[in-house]
Amino acid sequence: MSSARTTFEMGLREYVRTPVLLALLVFLPAYFIAVFTRVMPEQTVPVAVAGETVPVGMKAVVAALMTPMAAALVGGIAGLFLMRSAREADTRLSIVGASVPELLAARGGVLTVAAVVASLVATAVMTVTYVPEHLEWFVAATVLAGLLYGSLGALVGLVFNRLAGVYVLMFGPLLDIFLAQNPLSTETHAVAPYLPGHYPTELAFDAAFTASVDPATLLWGIAYLVGVAALTGLAFRRALQVG
Amino acid sequence: MSDAPGTARPTVGANARRLEVGLAAALREFVREPVNLALLVVLPPLVVVSYGSIMSSFPRLPYMSGSPETLGAVAGTLFVAGFLPGVIGLFQVISARNADARLSLAGFPRATLFGARLLTVLAASLLTAGVSLAALATRTDVASLPAAFGVLVLVGVLYGLVGMLVGTVLPRELEGSLVLIFLADVDEALASGIVRTDAAFTKLFPLHYPHELFGAAVDGREFATSDAAAAGAYVVVLGVAALAAYATLTGEGGLR
C-alpha cells in the first residue's frame, strides 16, 4: 500500500500548495449557508420528519437542507477534476506498477478529505443559526452527501467530459437536494427515493430535528455510495486501459 | 487597451476577418466534441421538464406567483438558458488562455479576441434560449415568445460574461467551476420564487431582474422599465469588467 500512501500524500500536498483552492473550500460552503440562512424569513413551517409533521423554523429547515448540498457541490467538483487532472499521472503510475485499487484508494482519500473539510465548515456555519439535535449524525450525513456526489462527479468526468461533469453537478444537487428532497413538498416525488441525495438528506433531517436517529438510513446511504464507487472504479479501470 | 508593442494598427476589415476566424475556430473546437452538442440539445428540455415535474409535489404557498409546476418550469428554463453559456464562457477563457496570450503577442487585438469569445457565448445563448423556450412552451402558455426569447438570450450573455470573468480571474478549472457553480446555484434558488426571501441584497444577484422580465414575458405583462434598465446595466458592467480582466490577462506578463 506504499504506492497508495505516496499518491494520497502527493494529492493532498497539491491541494495544500494551492492556497486559492483551500480558501475556496472554506469560503464557498460558508457563503452558501450564510446567504440562505440570512435571507429566509423568521417563520415556522410544518416539516415531515421521521413519519411525523413537526413545526420548524424556516431558517433551520433551509440550513439543514443546504448544508449537505454545499458538501455535495464541493465533493462533486473535487471528484470531477481530481480524476480528470490526475488521469495522465495515474496512467503512468499504473504502468510502473501501482494497482487500480491502490490508485483508487489514494484518489478516494483526497476526495474524502475535501468532503470532510467542506462538511465541517458548512456545519460550523450552520450552527450559528441552528444546532442539530445530533451533531455527529448530522456531520455524517453531510460527509455522505459529499462522498456520493464526489463519486458521481468522478464517474461523469471519466465517462463524458468536463463540460458534461460541470453541467451535471450544477443541475444535479439543486434538482435532487433542494427540490426533490425538500421537506416543504407535501408528497414525495416518485423519483426522489432513488436520487443520491435521498439518504443523506433524510439522515440530516432526522439528526437535526428528532430525538433519535435510525442508523439504517446511514447504512442504506453507504450501500448507495458503494454502488456508485464500484461503477466509478470500473470506469477508472477502463480509462487507465484506454489511456 | 493598447495592442502588443511593435504591431501596426489593423484596419476595420482586418479586424472583422480576425473576428470571423476567431469565432469559427472556437465554434469548430466546441462542435468537434459530440457530447457538447448533445448536451446543448438534450439538457434544456430535461432540466425544464424535471424542474416542473418535481415542483408539482409542492403545495401552492401564499407567496408563490403561480402554480408550483409552472414556477418550476420557468425557473428551470432560466437556469439552463443562463448556465450552459456560463460554463461555455468559463471554459472558453480557461482553455484558450495560452493561445490567446500568444495571439495577442503576435498582433491579434485583444478586443477582437474577446469579441470572438463573446460571439461564441452569444451563439450558445441563442441555441440554448431557443431549445429551452421550446421545451417550456410545451408545458405552459408563453404569452410573448419573442420577448421571452430575448430575455433568455440576455440571461445567456449575462452568465456567459460571468463565466468569462471567473475564468479570467481564476484560470484553473477546479477553482473556476467551484465559484461558478456556487454562484449559479444560490442565484437560481433565490430568484426562482420557490422560497420566500425578505432580504434586499438578493437583488444584487445576476438573475434577479431577468427573472422579473421573463415572468412578465410569460404572463403577457409589460416589462417594468426599472427591471429592464437594471438588467441592461448589469450586462454592461459585467461586459466592461470581463473585457478589462481579459485584456490584462492576455497583455504582456499576464500569461501566467
Oligomer: heterodimer
Instruction: Kindly give the count of domains of chain B.
Output: 1
Following the backbone from N to C, one meets helices and strands of chain A in this order, namely: HHEEHHHHHHH
State the helicity of chain A in percent bands.
over 70%
User: How helix-rich are the residues of chain B, as a percent range?
Assistant: over 70%
What does the main sheet of chain B amount to? Answer: none
Strand arrangement in the largest pleated sheet of chain A: 1-2
Biggest interface between protein chains, with counts per chain? Answer: A-B, 48 and 50 residues
Total number of helical segments of chain A? 9
Low-pLDDT sequence parts of chain A = none
Secondary-structure content class of chain A: mainly alpha
**So what's the overall shape of chain B?**
elongated
- Average per-residue pLDDT of chain A, rounded, comes to 88
